[in-house]
Amino acid sequence: MINLKNFSFFSTLPTREVEKISKHCRIQQYTSGTKILIEKEEVKDLILIVEGQLSVLKNYGGEKKTLFNLDPGDVYGEVEILNGTKSLSTLIGYQELKLVFIPKEVYLRLIGLYQGFAKESRDLYTRRAGLLLEKTEDKGQPARVITFFNVKGGAGKSVISANVATMLARFWKRRVVLLDLNLAFGDQAILLGLNSDKNIHRLANKKSLKINQIEEQLTLHQPSGLKVLLPPSLPEQAETIKPELVERIIDLLKPHYDFIIIDTHNQLTDLELKVLDMSNLIMLVMTMELTFIKNTKILLDLFQRLKIPREKVKVVLNRAFKSLGLEPAKVEKSLRYAISYFIPSAGEIVVPSVNKGMPFVLSKGSDGSGVLASVRQLCASIAGESTDNGTWSMFALFKEVFGLG
Ligand SMILES: Nc1ncnc2c1ncn2[C@@H]1O[C@H](COP(=O)(O)OP(=O)(O)OP(=O)(O)O)[C@@H](O)[C@H]1O
Ligand SMILES: [Mg+2]
């Protein structure tokens, strides 16, 4: 017997309801390669993946493309059921599968009865509907470039960018590429547990760079599907990477991805200026120390002089509430700028994840933690699913969520 309460999608439901569903659903096992659902076929059930992996394929003008993969704990069918359409994709298992089929009437009844469950469904629907309902593969929308920056080290740029990129790729099923532009001492290979000799230096001497040459140098982060452009393997090669090369790489990647996430070094050379200029969003990461406040303020003033639009720059306060004597409200006042995102200090979650080379957004140990919730909120706003309220109301919400008074 499978206890649905063990799967996060159903965790908000009361136990008696879960027991009731168990009576109405069927559990089935399949061998690898089985087609579970075919595009345009009627969707009668919500499918929960208990074991194995499935690919979600969609037909574009006679050619099948993989939209995303489903792993244990994922469900499929909410978009079709809520939209009242036939299947928008074909599901193929590429491992031995164990699936639970929940009749759509049972699923719809639960949505009507339980707000928490309805919210869970709506969130999932919003994440996937765009992809599944898209008529053509090319959305015509170039990638948004999001850069994590500050001129002082240790703010958490690398840790946050690694986790945001991983989460957008794994849970939002977006096409994400992460550029590690801390060219001499980049940390992304360690943070993501990547072992690869592919890197940006191999693109430095290409005459007329093409997208396929860049793709060849991207390293796949298997657990999430994120692709990473690692820095040169030797620090002395960093200076061979010129701003023009980075500009060309970003331009070539843009039509093929939803997000280009950039981790940077603590400096402001022509390379960083080029990247900041090309960014749709600049995440200025800081902690609650006076030195950070001073530098962040100088940067914000500089951005104003450089005519970087204010709405493009968001301040992220990392390790919030651990340093003594400074309050976020006072930080905002002295910066004269809203803090858009708060990431709590959580050494017990962040440090082991860094040492294991596994982003905490993928680790069970971070379930229910404030640091996970705050990264999720950051991703939701990047993915355009929630608008950040900016300043005071955000602070009030943060206090409410984390029980701080
Ligand atoms: N929210 C957090 N809670 C606890 N520890 C954190 C948090 N964020 C980051 N850290 C710790 O701070 C250290 C510095 O973070 P990180 O390497 O991401 O900073 P950075 O801005 O990239 O620094 P650099 O500029 O030197 O590359 C990490 O090793 C991590 O252990
Ligand atoms: Mg770093």
Write up this protein.
Helix 11 (328-335) links the parallel strand 15 (313-320) and strand 16. Helix 5 (157-170) packs across helix 13 (370-382). The longest helix has 19 residues, at 115-133. It contains 14 helices and 16 strands. Helix content is 36%, strand content 22%. The strands form three sheets. An eight-stranded mixed beta sheet has the order 11-12-10-13-9-14-15-16, with helices on both faces. The protein has 405 residues and is of the alpha/beta class. It has helices at residues 15-24, 78-83, 104-113, 115-133, 157-170, 188-191, 211-216, 243-253, 270-278, 290-305, 328-335, 347-356, 370-382, 391-401, and strands at residues 26-30, 35-37, 45-51, 54-60, 63-70, 75-76, 90-93, 97-103, 144-149, 176-181, 219-221, 226-229, 259-264, 281-286, 313-320, 339-344. It starts with 14 loop residues before the first helix and ends with a helix. The radius of gyration is 22 Å and the shape is globular. The chain has two domains: 4-133, Sandwich (Jelly Rolls), CATH 2.60.120; 144-402, P-loop containing nucleotide triphosphate hydrolases (Rossmann fold). Bound molecules: adenosine-5'-triphosphate and magnesium ion.
